[in-house]
Amino acid sequence: MAHRWTNDLTRANVTPKPLYLNRRQIMRGAAGLGLASAFGGPVAAQAGALEPNTFEEITTYNNFYEFGTGKEDPARNAGALEIEPWSIKVDGLVDSPGEYSLAELLDGLTEEERIYRFRCVEAWSMVIPWRGYELADILTRVGVKPEARYVAFETVVQEENMPGVRRRVIPFPYVEGLRIDEAMHPLTLMATGIYDEPMPKQNGAPIRLVVPWKYGFKSIKSIVRISLVEDEPPASWNVINPREYGFYSNVNPTVDHPRWSQATERRIGGGLFASRQETLMFNGYESEVASLYEDMDLSEYF
Ligand code: MTE
């Protein structure tokens, strides 16, 4: 289809599976054998700038406050999340509202692999090979009414399985929202896997949003409700601290977080070769998404 987006980071950049599972050990071994240049010379370090993070990095350094506020808490605690059966309630301004099983929502749609830069508001970043479905395909399947201007999302609450919910570290359910044109953009993915694995629980199993030109907190996990609405819906961090987190949350090196610069980022992983990088406008997706914000003052709508 003409509208589909194509990866600039291709499968050729992805480390083969035996390597992504233990690249660190291999690099250590290679260094020991005096072969480090094969993996880590200056040229490799450059190419490494867009090389996907390892499966281990992607699944052990997470934000999922339902399971605790520490980066390692989700990997430790999210095993308790119950994901079978899973259904998503679709309501609001849609032609076919209802409670859909994942199969009902996704069967027959195209699952794609998308290797996206992922930039967190805390100024770290990764490159992640997601698998998933364009949100636009799912919304088209349920039929969006013309009055719908925003899409609202909600994460599951399983109090008995979620220590962060029991401690009420932030208000739950975690909620997020997109403007309808952002939601229909071909870059916007409902992700169901990482590398060749089903979505790990700590990353938002069985299905989570990925919006690569926005800070990571817009990418809501473990979604159980999608609502088409007329007015701008609440978004968790915007509700918790509106001065620091706007509704749009576009990656923008020229608009600082009130407490820190957003001009550079630190790549997670990479060991010795890790370095701070300049953050790109819209996280590198400027040519694809800048037109969505043409007439907006992005320092006001941050
Ligand atoms: N979704 C829910 N339900 N709860 C959360 O705490 N954290 C957000 C986002 N989605 C969060 C969430 C934040 S702050 C980030 S940076 C990303 O998830 C992290 O995604 P990752 O752990 O897959 O890297």
Describe the protein.
The protein is of the alpha+beta class and 302 residues long. The chain has a single domain (11-293), classed as Sulfite Oxidase, Chain A, domain 2, CATH 3.90.420. Helix content is 23%, strand content 22%. The protein is built from 11 helices and 12 strands. It has helices at 17-32, 36-40, 42-47, 55-60, 73-77, 102-106, 135-142, 163-166, 180-183, 236-240, 286-289, and strands at residues 87-92, 98-101, 112-119, 124-134, 150-155, 175-179, 189-194, 197-198, 208-210, 223-229, 264-267, 276-278. The strands form 2 sheets. Strands 3, 4, 7, 8, 9, 11 and 12 form a 7-stranded mixed sheet that branches. Strand 3 (112-119) and strand 4 (124-134) form a beta hairpin. Mean pLDDT is 88; it is low at 18-48. Bound molecules: ligand MTE. The site of ligand MTE has 15 residues, from loops.
Short overview:
By secondary structure, this protein is an alpha+beta fold. 23% of the residues lie in helices and 22% in strands. The strands form 2 sheets. Strands 3, 4, 7, 8, 9, 11 and 12 form a 7-stranded mixed sheet that branches.
